[in-house]
Amino acid sequence: MTHGPDMPEDVCMRCLAVLGEPQRLRILRALAEGEQTAGALSERLGVRQNTLSHHMRQLREHGLVEVRRHPHDERFTFYRLNGRRLRALSAVLTDWAARADAECETSGRWSS
Q: What pLDDT does 2 receive?
């Protein structure tokens, strides 16, 4: 079953599981302000580099962040959000919410 433009159900579920870790949500929130180096993220979030690397690997593997190397110094890694993947995930959640609303309207039951 496919949800959203490019979001098969299994991919969606894995992305949501990855986002269930609070530190990863903090990373995404920080990256929402723009592209950042691993060092800047580590300092900003107060997270050790090896811990950040673990979380970044999970976020990259699930397509939630993108990575690029500095063009003149490969020691520097820059991270940014993958807007396309996040929009696809958002579309899935929006679809689920719309289905829930429609079911509540049909059954006459509403929740807050």
A: 41
